[in-house]
């Protein structure tokens, strides 16, 4: 009996391997059959008109932690844009001076306050509203 057990196991693994190979073969055939339709669809030019990811309405639906992460990311992007595009430091120094030591929760609270006070802008791009919120909140740091 001991001599036959490995053969039975090997036979079972071969059967499973054969099924996997068959499924893989069928998947490849399916992809090949769909390729002409996909290629035809790609012939049309694709235009992307996105300059932002969220509107104020979308932002308000986020959990608090995600709001903090989003606003922190926008502020980081504003500060990093200076280096990326060669803008003089004085253009964003007010923002950098203002946000030093702020937590992501505090940054989100500033954006939330701006939204509460400007409901007519909830359909605007959220990155613009974060900039406006920081511009208002950091008034003392602008020179």
Attribute tags:
single chain; 143 residues; mainly alpha; 6 helices; 69% helix; elongated; disordered N terminus
- Could you tell me the number of beta strands? 0
Number of helices: 6
Distance between the termini: 90 Å
The H-and-E topology, N to C, reads as HHHHHH
Mean pLDDT: 78
Cα radius of gyration in angstroms: 28 Å
Specify the overall morphology.
elongated
**Broad structural category:** mainly alpha
Give a short account of the largest sheet.
Answer: none
Beta content comes to: under 5%
**Helical amount:** 55-70%
Spans of 5+ residues with little confidence (pLDDT < 50)? 1-16
Structural commentary:
It is built from six helices and no strands. The chain has 143 residues and is mostly helical. Helix 3 packs across helix 5 and helix 5 crosses helix 6. The termini are far apart. The N terminus is likely disordered.
